[in-house]
Amino acid sequence: MIKVEFAAGDARWDVYEAPLKQAFAKLNLDVDLRLGHAPQDVEYIVYAPGSYLQDFTPFTNAKAVLNLWAGVERIVGNETLTMPLCRMVDPGLSTAMVEWVSGHTLRYHLEIDRCLATQNRWDPYVPPLAKDRPVTILGLGELGQSCAKALAALGFPVTGWSRSERDVPGVTCRFGEDGMHAALSNAEIVVLLLPDTPATRDLLNAQTLLHLPKGARILNPGRGPLIDDNALLAALDNGQIGHATLDVFRVEPLPQGHPYWTHPNVTVTPHIAAETRPSTAAEVVAENIRRGEAGVEFIYQVDRDKGY
Ligand code: NDP
Ligand code: OXD
Q1: Domain contains 120
Q2: What residue owns the CA closest to ligand 1's atom 4?
Q3: Most informative mutation of 90, 276, 284, 302 for ligand 2 (most atoms within 8 A of CB)
Q4: Helix or strand or coil: residue 5?
Q5: Residue 221: closest CA among 167, 275, 260, 173
Q6: CA torsion, points 145, 199, 275, 292, in degrees to nearest 10?
Q7: Cα–Cα 20 to 30 A to 44, which of 60, 159, 233, 271?
């Protein structure tokens, strides 16, 4: 029997146990899934941030750590982790992110707040068509590309930015440091879907926020450290940035008393943009265990040097 340790937290066990078992059965994998195997017996570790498991040294026979989250910044630098680390790419999670990004983009595009604020008077406002509202997505990976395609399908002119050169049909693609200025320069709405790495920290800062057209709006479902918070607050106060919808923060939960809670031009959502969906994610975990047993390369393996 393949011994799989569920180290993604006791609270998740209730929601993941049945879908994982079903996914293993579907692939004819004979798995002993538990919380609390003897570490030296464990062959695969199902993981999530916040796990009790921080020291992987005793897991001498583990063939891979399978993360239930897309983002790996809280585990990728763990020096006791010597086995392959795979992140989550889950169709359910991607769909959720497309819905969150599309919904909040349309809120800005249609000026829905303006409409809600004028419920006591007849005050017509005609938004431009989507084709006249440029949107930029920083990050053209699994989630960035899905969102870029969805927004392009709604008619927005979409520019995407990545580290290496990408080609996404219907999307203007820019890359590298040189491409960033061009990606920001006409963006009325910017979406951050980058990982948190040393190279992406404070990417939106006092200088780069000035590359955006005045009044641009920001959606951050990526990670809190992508934005220099003080620079954003200053840009919101002076009107350089019109509004920001933030799902992720340097400290989560966002501490009471943080200026984002009360800023009139900030909407906080509590890291709910895209939750991993157990039924689809379980299939990804099972597929990687199948691969490990067949000696085939894992999917969605993290590149430790790049940090994502
Ligand atoms: P991917 O790894 O598939 O994509 C990351 C993208 O970022 C790639 O296009 C990559 O470039 C680009 N990138 C990385 N570093 C740089 C850099 N230095 N300069 C320019 N571009 C860079 O990740 P996903 O799309 O799956 O997820 C993105 C992030 O979304 C996650 O890391 C996580 O932080 C966040 N997330 C948030 C959730 C939420 O609920 N709020 C849920 C799930 C994820 P390249 O293409 O060249 O590699
Ligand atoms: C993730 C997240 O990385 O939920 O999957 O933020």
Answers
A1: yes
A2: 141
A3: 276
A4: strand
A5: 275
A6: 80
A7: 271
- Among candidate residues 211, 250, 258, 271, the one labeled active-site is 271
Q: If you compute the radius of gyration of the chain from its CA atoms, what whole number of angstroms results?
A: 21
Active site residue 223: yes
Asked if residue 71 has its Cβ within 6 Å of ligand 2, the reply is yes
* Strand 241-246 to 216-220 pairing: parallel
Whether residue 304 lies inside any domain: the answer is no
How many beta carbons lie within 10 A of that of residue 157, not counting itself? 19
pTM of the model: 0.98
In short, whether 71's Cβ falls inside 6 Å of ligand 1 is yes
Best CA proximity match to 274, nearest among 143, 96, 104: 96
Range of the domain at 259: 91-268
Out of 104, 107, 223, 277, the active site residue is 223
What CATH code is carried by the domain that includes residue 49? 3.40.50.720
- Looking at the fold, whether 136 and 280 belong to one and the same domain comes out as no
Q: Which atom of ligand 2 is nearest to the CA of 72?
A: 3
pLDDT values of the chain reduced to their tens digit, one per residue, 308 residues: 999 999 999 999 999 999 999 999 999 999 999 999 999 999 999 999 999 999 999 999 999 999 999 999 999 999 999 999 999 999 999 999 999 999 999 999 999 999 999 999 999 999 999 999 999 999 999 999 999 999 999 999 999 999 999 999 999 999 999 999 999 999 999 999 999 999 999 999 999 999 999 999 999 999 999 999 999 999 999 999 999 999 999 999 999 999 999 999 999 999 999 999 999 999 999 999 999 999 999 999 999 999 99
